[in-house]
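Researcher: Structure prediction, please.
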Amino acid sequence: MVTDQKATQSFCRDCFVYVPPGQEMFVQRNIGTVVLCRKCFEKLRRLLELGILTDSGVSTRTIS
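Model: Predicted structure follows.
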C-alpha cells in the first residue's frame, strides 16, 4: 500500500500518540518508513548508541 507522507494526521508507530504536522520523525524500518514521536525517536536513538539495538531494529541482547 502506498501512502502519502503528508498525511493530515500522524500517530507514533510505537506509543500511538498523535504527532502534530511538522514534528514527525520518519524512521526507516524493515516494514518501510514509519512515523515516531520525538520521545520514541530519542529512545530509539539511545538504544542504537548504547549498542542494544542494531540499525535493523534487532535486539543484540539474548535472554538467558
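Model: The helical segments are 38-50.
Researcher: Thanks, that helps.
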